[in-house]
């Protein structure tokens, strides 16, 4: 086939048409065979954004950029060749080169801008997405994680809503805003707006290397210096942090709203929204907003407030460094502590409702409590302040400040607290006059308290003597107060996981018992008085006093108590060998005897009769075996009927031999004669072994007794005037 030379121009024209048709068929993409020249554009699928050549403002220079498609005012959100304008676009072109890079070449085929992809591509395409992002990817792979390059990684002065800016810690790419030089020149200006991650992340506006404005560190809900970013009904603000990225994002709650964030040539950061009715961009907010947004206006340790005149003042217990300059409204010198610090005696005073200061600061484990944060700061004398990292859900994490505290401003309605290091002498002092006044008042109060204490002492002493006379016997002197360690409610609540049902190990007439663990790792059992308990405060105190004095060999060790508000609790040492029954017993009416005694006698029997041994209930005789009886009173023994005691809900989860053995041991504990009952150490041994058990004798419910034998085995001088016998022929479980 021959082709005449005259037909060659026609072939060129056909080739051009094919190229144009190729672009029109894939209006949002450019492939390796296509070229975009001045006048050509590609449009995102939903026609939200458009890419092509444009001239900004009154300039005649040409740039390749992306702008909003359906907004009459052409508003670029990205510029490719911002530093290298094209003055003659007759032969300029945006196209792919064999290396897989998308490049912009001028009329001399010199490359003035390149995507500089880091990975080679076999069949690359450039696609404009509806988000306004221009991406380069493999033609058959549209997964965002596999993009070869994207314009969002290289923003200029504007971002549409819902875009991340900050750091990709894997690639090292930082997304930040930089202003244009002017409205006619998109070259990089002198202002930048970026996410500073040298400490805990915060947004910072700079002019060159000088900080002009900062929003304060992120507190889990918003940046501390601008609560409106995190608390409005139009936009949401979030900070994303993990091992790969640290990004900040602002997004609209209503997707129909068209919004953008832009940094103006004059250094004003703005959030703008498009109002269709008036066909204009309307400012939603500006940064900086007011005089207190100027970085470090009041100097070190100075506090700025727009509601006062002058705007600057010193933090409490600080004074101006230069009084004369302060009077002239020159606050740059800042403030000094009124009293010098002493690392071994310093204290921390809390301030709320302020923008968190700027200085060298760092952050610690996000699970730290505020108390752990304070301890961390106390370990380092150069630590000047501390605060919670995240104020959500009661607060967590730790922020520490070092050096001078700068750029603090007063806010309203803020919950975050910061604790600033002060000299201990400043805790209760505001000058010599106040010191003198406090000294006088303290002395006067001391005299009054001493007088009241003496009156109370003699009144209580008189009342105790009167009680002894009325109630008969020196035994009542055991009701004197006994000092015992106390636990605060917060410590007990934390130890028991807020009295979680999973920590509950039993319940008696006094109330439920919970297992817990103190911060030092010590396990405890907490006996919490139920509000429906029949015991009152007197019984509670009685149990505390008598168990603390007694330290009975058969009782679990009492560690302390907690009385706070309506809460009344006893804290025992937790014993994993089955001590729960002893804790559940009602010792509110307990009696004591000397540690070297094995038995004793009382003139008046007190306690819960269901738990009393017969010799104590009738004769007032008690010994270590009386408690053994109380331990075994839960037993029940009839021929082939002992398993009726077992809870039906446990039928499928217990061993028959263990149940029978437990009931057998219980019956040994409730035998009529104290001498026949085993000691508690023997009880533990019998329950933990498989040896043969002796047969139990008659339980103590049979009232006949050998009084003379009782007299010979006890220190009692009592005799029984008559022997009224009775028997109980049918026994039912309590």
* Radius of gyration, taken over Cα atoms and rounded to an integer in Å: 42 Å
What profile does the largest beta sheet have?
5 strands, antiparallel
How many helices in DSSP terms? 12
Strand order, biggest sheet?
28-33-30-31-29
What structural category characterises the helix and strand content? alpha+beta
Q: Identify the overall geometry.
A: elongated
Helicity level: 10-25%
Can you tell me the CATH architecture of the largest domain? 2-Layer Sandwich
Distance between the amino and carboxyl termini: 116 Å
pLDDT averaged over residues: 78
CATH domain topology of the largest domain: Phosphorylase Kinase, domain 1
Q: What is the assigned CATH homologous superfamily of the largest domain?
A: Phosphorylase Kinase, domain 1
Q: How much of the polypeptide forms β-strand, as a percent range?
A: 25-35%
Name the poorly predicted regions.
1-26, 471-480, 587-598, 702-734
Number of domains: 4
Number of DSSP strand runs: 40
CATH class of the largest domain: Alpha Beta
């Amino acid at each position: 086939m021959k082709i005449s030379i005259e037909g060659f121009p026609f072939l060129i024209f056909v080739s051009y048409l094919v190229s144009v048709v190729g672009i029109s068929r894939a209006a949002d993409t450019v492939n390796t065979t296509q070229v975009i020249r001045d006048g050509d554009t590609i449009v995102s699928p939903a026609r939200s954004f458009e890419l092509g050549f444009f001239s900004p403002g009154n300039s005649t220079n040409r740039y390749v950029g992306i702008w909003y498609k359906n907004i009459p005012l052409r508003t670029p959100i990205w510029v490719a060749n911002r530093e290298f304008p094209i003055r003659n676009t007759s032969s300029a072109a945006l196209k792919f080169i064999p290396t897989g890079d998308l490049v912009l070449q001028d009329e001399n085929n010199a490359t003035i801008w390149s995507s500089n992809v880091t990975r080679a591509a076999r069949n690359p395409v450039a696609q404009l997405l509806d988000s306004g992002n221009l991406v380069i990817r493999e033609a058959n792979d549209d997964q965002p994680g596999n993009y070869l390059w994207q314009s969002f990684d290289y923003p200029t002065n504007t971002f549409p809503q819902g875009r991340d800016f900050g750091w990709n810690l894997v690639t090292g790419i930082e997304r930040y805003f930089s202003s244009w030089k002017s409205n006619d020149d998109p070259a990089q200006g002198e202002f930048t707006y970026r996410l500073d991650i040298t400490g805990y992340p915060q947004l910072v506006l700079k002019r060159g290397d000088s900080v002009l404005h900062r929003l304060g560190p992120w507190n889990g809900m918003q940046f501390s210096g601008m609560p409106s970013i995190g608390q409005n009904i139009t936009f949401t603000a979030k900070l994303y942090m993990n091992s790969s990225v640290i990004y900040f994002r602002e997004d609209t709650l209503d997707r129909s709203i068209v919004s953008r964030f832009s940094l103006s040539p004059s250094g004003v950061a703005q959030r703008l929204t498009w109002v269709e009715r008036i066909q204009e961009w309307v400012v939603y907010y500006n940064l900086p907003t007011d005089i207190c947004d100027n970085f470090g206006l009041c100097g070190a340790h100075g506090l700025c407030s727009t509601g006062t005149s002058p705007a600057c003042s010193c933090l409490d217990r600080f004074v101006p460094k230069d009084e004369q300059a302060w009077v002239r409204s020159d606050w740059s010198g800042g403030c000094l502590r009124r009293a010098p610090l002493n690392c071994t005696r310093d204290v921390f005073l809390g301030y709320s409702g302020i923008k968190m200061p700027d200085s060298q600061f760092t952050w610690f484990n996000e699970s730290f409590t505020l108390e752990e944060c304070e301890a961390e700061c106390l370990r380092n004398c150069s630590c000047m302040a501390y605060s919670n990292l995240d104020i959500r859900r009661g607060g967590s994490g730790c922020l520490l400040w070092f050096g001078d505290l700068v750029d603090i401003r007063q806010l309203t309605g803020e919950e975050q607290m910061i604790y600033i290091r002060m000299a201990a002498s400043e805790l209760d002092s505001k000058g010599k006059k106040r010191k003198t006044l406090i000294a006088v008042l303290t002395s006067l109060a001391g005299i009054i308290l001493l007088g009241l204490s003496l009156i109370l002492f003699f009144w209580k002493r008189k009342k105790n003597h009167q009680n002894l006379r009325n109630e008969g016997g020196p035994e009542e002197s055991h009701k004197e107060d006994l000092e015992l360690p106390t636990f605060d409610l917060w410590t007990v609540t934390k130890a028991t996981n807020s009295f979680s049902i999973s920590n509950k190990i039993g319940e008696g007439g006094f109330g439920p018992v919970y297992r817990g663990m103190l911060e030092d790792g010590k396990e405890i059992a907490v006996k919490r008085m139920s509000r429906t308990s029949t015991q009152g405060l007197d019984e509670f105190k009685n149990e505390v006093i008598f168990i603390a004095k007694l330290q009975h060999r058969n009782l679990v060790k009492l560690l302390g108590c907690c009385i706070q508000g309506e809460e009344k609790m006893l804290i025992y040492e937790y014993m994993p060998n089955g001590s729960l029954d002893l804790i559940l017993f009602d010792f509110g009416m307990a009696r004591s005897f000397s540690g070297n005694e094995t038995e004793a006698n009382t003139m008046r029997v007190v306690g819960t009769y269901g738990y009393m041994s017969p010799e104590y209930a009738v004769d007032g005789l008690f010994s270590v075996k009386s408690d053994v009886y109380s331990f075994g009173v839960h037993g029940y023994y009839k021929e082939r009927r002992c398993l009726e005691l077992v809870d039906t809900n446990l039928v499928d989860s217990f061993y028959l031999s263990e149940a029978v053995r437990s009931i057998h041991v219980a019956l040994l504990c409730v035998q009529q004669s104290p001498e026949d009952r085993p000691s508690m150490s023997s009880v533990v041994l019998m329950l933990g072994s498989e040896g043969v058990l002796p047969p139990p004798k008659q339980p103590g419910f049979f009232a006949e007794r050998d009084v003379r034998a009782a007299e010979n085995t006890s220190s009692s001088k009592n005799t029984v005037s008559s022997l009224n016998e009775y028997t109980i022929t049918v026994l039912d479980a309590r």
